[in-house]
Amino acid sequence: MSANGTAKSMKAIVWEGKPFQMAVKYQPMPKVEDPNDVVVRITTAAICGTDLHTYRGLSGSKNPPWIMGHESLVLSLGIVSQLEESTAVTAIIVSAASKAIDDFGVDLGGTQAQYIRAPFADSSCFKLPPGTEHDLDYVLICDIFPTAWYALDCSGFQPGDSVAVFGAGPVGLLCAYSAILRGASKVYSIDYVQSRLKKAASIGAIPINFTEGDPVTQILAREPRGVRRSCDCVGFECLNNELEPQEDVVLKNCINVTEPTGGIGLIGEYLPPTGPTPGAPLSTGKEGIFPVPIGLLWTKSLSINGGIAEIRRLQPILQDLIESGRAKPSFVIDEILHSLHDVPDAYKRFVARQIGKPVIHLPHPNSDLDQRGDGVTNGDVTSQDLSI
Question: Alcohol dehydrogenase-like N-terminal domain location, by residue (predicted)?
Answer without folding.
Answer: 35-129
